[in-house]
Amino acid sequence: MSLKYQSPSDISGFLKIHGLAMSKRFGQNFLMEPSIRRNIVELIEPGERDRVWEIGAGLGALTSLLTDRVGSLTVFEIDRGFSEALLELFAGKPGFSLVTGDFFKTWKRTLEETGPPDKILGNLPYNSASQIIADLVENGPAGVPMVFTVQKELAGRILAKPGTKAYSSFSVLCGTFVTARRCFDIQPGAFFPRPEVVSTVIRLEPGMPYPVKDRPFYLGFIRKIFNSRRKTLMNNLVSGYGLLSDKKEKISGMLAVMGIDPLRRSETLTVEQIIKCADNVQAVLESM
Question: Are 185 and 199 spatial neighbours (Cβ–Cβ below 8 Å)?
Fold first, then answer.
């Protein structure tokens, strides 16, 4: 059985025949435009031996372009009805496998059972895209390029620069461990049903632009210094680490040596400054 992904009437008919309905909770919008679907697939540079993960396959608009071009394709789909449809559409394809359930609860077990993918892509649900990306950047397999379709606002947060409203701990997390590139925008009319926002396709390149000495400490550090945007860097450090006067004084002196005013807000610091600051704060905490 085949499905015309560029046709709203064909998609609607398929859903009706199979007794399926789209869920707002899962943020389901199907990408129809063939040229855009092809462009997204090309961004991961699929190879015949590649092991690829696709997150949130829906009814298989991208899946259909990948099954014959990669060595194996593991598809993650939270909707059980859509999972059954995917099996009907692709179960006979060599290398195709399906993981049904919440991606957050299934990907680590899949990683243990099948090994790391070579590439990851997905049209991510708007309501969980940032959590998915953060989870993979923090805990996912190293050295894996990722291509995602996300809400334009989220792409802006990933690519945000210091001193802007969108710059946050999420921006710093991504800026520390991957190199993000905005590829192109997708207008609402390319989807069915039509969403209310513009989407953006981003590519996250593997590798760490800046070295981090202690990853667990650093991850906690960036959360602490962005805990309250209205507080200064020093006040966030004091509340985050419960600093007493002696440690506070020493860290304040250390920041001065680095050329960082303790009264600055964290969102004005570059990723490189934050990494150096984390290393120095950790050294102070461990020395006293």
Answer: yes
Q: Give Cβ neighbours of residue 9 (< 8 Å, ≥ 6 apart).
A: none
Residue range 48-100, pLDDT digits in tens: 999 999 999 999 999 999 999 999 999 999 999 999 999 999 998 999 999 99
Distance (Å) of CA 266 to CA 117, 178, 214, 229: 35, 20, 20, 7
Contact status, residue 222 vs residue 172, Cβ threshold 8 Å: yes
DSSP string, 223-268: HHHTS-TTS-HHHHHHHHHT--HHHHHHHHHHHHHHT--TTS-GGG
Fold of 8-205: Rossmann fold (3.40.50)
CA distances from 170 to 27, 34, 244 (A): 21, 32, 28
Cα(29)–Cα(32) distance, integer angstroms: 9
141 closest CA partner among 101, 111, 176: 111
The rounded distance, in Å, linking the Cα atoms of 267 and 260 is 13
The phi, psi pair for 150, rounded to 5°, reads -135, 170
Q: How many CB atoms lie within 10 A of CB 187?
A: 13
CA angle 22, 134, 179 (to 5 degrees): 115
* DSSP structure string for 79-124: -HHHHHHHHHHHTTSTTEEEEES-HHHHHHHHHHHH---SEEEEE-
Q: What is the model's pLDDT at position 230?
A: 85
| Fold of the CATH domain 215-287 | Helicase, Ruva Protein; domain 3 (1.10.8)
Domain map (residue ranges) of the chain: 8-205, 215-287
Distance between CA atoms of 199 and 184, rounded to whole angstroms? 9
Q: Which of 161, 165, 154 is nearest to 200 (CA)?
A: 154
Q: Return the bridge partners of 121, or none.
A: 54, 147
According to the model, what pLDDT value does residue 2 have? 78
Residues in the chain: 288
pTM for the whole structure:
0.94
